[in-house]
Design brief:
The chain contains six helices and six strands, in the order αααββαββαββα.
């Protein structure tokens, strides 16, 4: 089954059921015939901008975001503007420098954008290593992120 089918099923499940964990979502997807891991479910939730909402009984459940991507992107871009202080690359690896303690927040922001050229990120305290598909992508990513460096 293709990604769009799986993501459609995720929307159906979170709309009709009180699913509150990635583990529960993974279990339900597998019961519905989608052979997925929790990592796949996690990436889908992130890409689809699924949020958790508070229910009247004090528990949480997944729900589609009522806010368009624009407001989410604005918040995440704000993190980049306030925390990113440097960017460089070598071959297919991009290295970002952030304010002390901000690498995790910047890494989260980058992962939330779901840019195809990014294979993965590893965050320390003030440094992020980003593996991209090739050197051209690394250079383009540095150029894209340099607009946030003040």
């Amino acid at each position: 089954m293709v990604k769009s089918d799986r993501q459609g099923k995720i929307l159906e499940l979170i709309t009709n059921e009180a699913i509150s964990t990635q583990s529960d979502l993974t279990k339900r997807l597998n019961e519905c015939g989608f052979n997925v891991t929790q990592a796949t479910a996690s990436r889908d939730l992130q890409e689809m901008r699924i949020i958790k909402v508070l229910l009247s009984d004090g528990t949480y459940k997944y729900a589609p975001s009522k806010d368009p991507d624009i407001s989410i992107s604005d918040k995440l871009e704000s993190i980049l503007r306030h925390c990113l202080i440097g960017a460089d690359y070598a071959n297919n690896i991009t290295v970002l420098k952030t304010m002390s303690g901000a690498a995790q927040a910047v890494g989260y922001a980058l992962d939330s954008f779901v840019w195809d050229e990014i294979v993965g990120t590893i965050c320390g305290d003030d440094t992020i290593m980003i593996v991209v598909r090739n050197e051209k992508s690394a250079k383009q990513l540095c150029n894209r992120l340099s607009k946030y460096i003040q």
